[in-house]
Amino acid sequence: MSGLLLEARDVTKVLGRGAGQVHALKEVTLSLHGGELAMLMGPSGSGKTTLMSILGCMLAPTAGEIRICDHSVVTTDREQMSALRRNYIGFVFQSYHLFPTLTAVENVQLALDVRGRRGRDAKMRSREALSSVGLGNKFDSYPLQLSGGEQQRVAIARSLVSNPSIILADEPTAALDTATGRSIMQLLSRIAADRKRGVLVVTHDTRLTPFASRVLSIEDGRIVGEISAKRPRARRKAAKRG
To answer: In what side-by-side order are the strands of the sheet with 63-68?
Structure first.
């Protein structure tokens, strides 16, 4: 395991006001290191999505501190949070979030476009990212021409193309069948083999735990348990080959 990339310290998030006020997170502390795939598990309403939004610099905590690659989020304004998000974080979502009128390579290229990187180099990097996730023959395919697993691979390529240190994946296999979901987790596992990159997966699917380096459990807005796990030898070898 390599250096600390992401850390939450005593993070609390209060939503709403008055009688409708809800403590979505209560003094949550967790970390993510380079070279690991950590998994955050919990039932619906446990605070997973709220925590992911805060860790991804999309939502500010009510109290506590977030550190992204040695940068503190607690003192940042919206513009600075956006810069941290662009520079260090890649996102993978359950519903892919692909534009149906754009090809695979164009969808990936969007992640570079918002960072001001355009032209021939951006297109080449987008093609390389798609090739790295096994879609070297799908550059010009539109989302509706791709299977669910292929669409998720496009989304993963998009998250990787700007070379972020942190990948946050929110229920990345929920819309996929078991075999396809397994292949997506194998891909994320290979990505996490890079000691300069960490992957945090939010899920409620206990079948995915063999892929994790660590499993954290969240209930009612609190981290209630943490288990260190060892990925099976075959998957570690596969990760090294990737």
So the answer is: 22-33, 4-15, 63-68, 71-72
Q: What global pTM score does this model have?
A: 0.88
Asked if the model's pLDDT at residue 235 lies above 80, the reply is no
Flag whether 4 is in a domain: no
Determine what percent of the chain is predicted with pLDDT higher than 70. Answer: 93
- Indicate which CATH number applies to the domain containing 232: 3.40.50.300
Domain assignment present for residue 160? The answer is yes
- The verdict on residue 5 lying in a domain is no
123 pLDDT band, cuts 50/70/90, is very high
